[in-house]
Amino acid sequence: MSKLLLKNIKTLIGILPESTSKLSGQEMKTLEQLNNAWLACENGTILAYGSMDDFEGISNWQNLSIIDCENKIVMPGFVDSHTHIVYAQNREQEFVDRINGLSYEDIALRGGGILNSVEKLRNCNENDLFAQSYQRFKEIISLGTVGVEIKSGYGLNLNAELKMLRVIKQLSNLKLIPVKATLLAAHAVPNEYKENKTKYIEYIISEIIPAVSAEKTADFIDVFCEKNYFSKKETIEILNAGIKHGLTPKVHAEQLSHSGGIEAGVECDAISVDHLEFINDNDIQLLLNSKTMPTILPGAAYFLGLQAPPARKLIDAGLALAFASDYNPGSSPSGNMMQVMSMACVQYKLNPEEAINACTINTAYAANLQKTLGSITPGKLANLIITKPISSYNFLPYAFGSNLIEKIIINGKEFN
Ligand code: NIG
Ligand code: FE
Q: Which residue segment(s) compose the domain that 401 sits in?
C-alpha cells in the first residue's frame, strides 16, 4: 500500500464535492480552495485533505512519501477531452504553405490536410505508430494532462482505423492515465470514395462501426460535420449507427462554417460538441436544453487564424464550457493545456477560475471521466499538478509560455 502526503500547500484549488459532474454559467467562477493545506493519497487515490492548522501529525510512517509544497499550488491535473495524438508524422510543410497564403481548405482540396495524414498513417506499421504516439502521450502527461480522449480518423478504412484504435488501447493499457477512445471514421472522405461519399458512409455503418464495436476499442463516435466533409443529415445517420453499437456521440461542429453540427449533436444526445467558431443564438438555446458540453479548442482557432468562438456569451447564457487542446498534426500541433488555459483567459476573457474549471472538471465531463478526475475529491484518482513556487493561481495563465509545473503526480506517485 503506497501513501503520499503533500504538506504545507500554499493553496489547494479545485476542491469539489463528489456530486458535482460539471460547472455551468455563474458556477464556473467558483474555485473552491484551501490555504495552508495538506492532502493525503493512498493506493493511487485522494484520501483526504485539510488545513495544516488542524493537521494531526503522522502516526504511521510505513510506505509513506512526503512532499513539502511550501509556496506551491496543488491542483487537479488537466483532462484533455479532444486530441488526435495517434498519427504518423507531422505536417509542417502545410504550415509553411499557409504562411505563404493558402488556406486550410485550399490545402485540403488539393489532397493535403487530413488526407495527407491518412496516407502517412496507412503506410506506418502499428509498432512505429505506437512509438511515435507514446512520445506525445508522455509529453502531454509531463505538461499536466492526467486524463485524455484520443481519436482515430487518419485511417479511413477498416484496417487502418482498427490499427489506430489498437494503438490507443495500448496507450490505455499502460495504466498511466485514463484514456478514452473515439472512432472518427467520418473525419473525411478517403480518396477511394471521392466520387461516392454515400458508399463511404454505408461502409462506415455496415463494416467499420460493427468491427470496432466487436473489438471494444472505442467509447465514443465522432463526425466532422462541415462543408466538403459530412452534412448534418449524414452526421445524424452516422452517430445513430454508433449509438446502436454502444458508442456515445461527439461532434466536430461549426469550425469552418455553420453546418448544423450542434443541431445534430444535441439531437443525438452528444456528450460534447467541439470547435464552435460559427455557433449561433439558436445553437445556444439548443445547448441550454441539453446535456451536451460545448467545447472550445483555442489551439486550432489560433493556429488556423479562425475567428474566436463567443466563449463569454456561452457562459453568460448559463452554459457549461470546456476548453481542450485538439492536439493534431494539421490544425493544432500542441497539447499544452496550461497554454490552452492561458488562451482561454487572454483571448476568450475567461477569469482564471473559469479557465481552470473549463480545463479540469468540465473537460472531465466531456470525456466521461468526471467520476475519477477533474477535481480534488476524496476517492478520485490522485492525478495532480504541483506548481513551482508562485504568488497565486492567477500567475498560471498570466505567465504564458513559462513552465510553471514542478511535479506531476499520477496515481499517487511522482511521474518522471
Ligand atoms: O479537429 N477539424 C477537423 N479535424 C481536426 C484537424 C485534423 C487535421 O488537420 O489533421 C481538428 O481540427
Ligand atoms: Fe479535432
A: 3-77+375-414
